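Example 3.2
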Amino acid sequence: MTTTPARLTVLAGPTAVGKGTVSADVRLRYPEVWLSVSATTRSPRPGEVDGVHYHFLSTGEFEAMAARGDLLEWAVVHGRNRYGTPRRPVEERLAAGEPALLEIDLQGARQVRETMPDALFVFLAPPSWEELERRLVGRGTEGPEERARRLETAKVELAAEPEFDVTIVNDEVHRATDELVALMGLRTR
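Structure, written as tokens:
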């Protein structure tokens, strides 16, 4: 029996829009969807587990992966930390015909579009700018300077929405998750 390669789905959007929350909901409610684990040079946030939420790497380890071509995409995000998608696990899942989801930033989505233009590119949008600000402040993981930097970045990221195939408004996590999973061609619960 031959397996037809699956179509990659790329989820991106501005900082604090809830990409991680929606991805966690996909992982919990739709275990048949394989969710790529990104590599990063940032420190873990409280509760994050290496290899589950991210592969936490030193700058040297990350740069070596990039130099070998082991990353499907990578970028320096918010002017500070590197984030990237290990290439091999994505290619293996797609070749096996498994639904695969990348949760990445705007720069990464643009790189994936260059190498995998047949992927489905989904923009996760906030219900409003005020709600985006509230979520960023509410998560309490960044100080005032970092919040200001991320909000400036978010303005640029929101302006990129037309580059995507479809937009999902993250006004309610389960609804946004179900819409994403339906776009991937899977039956929702």
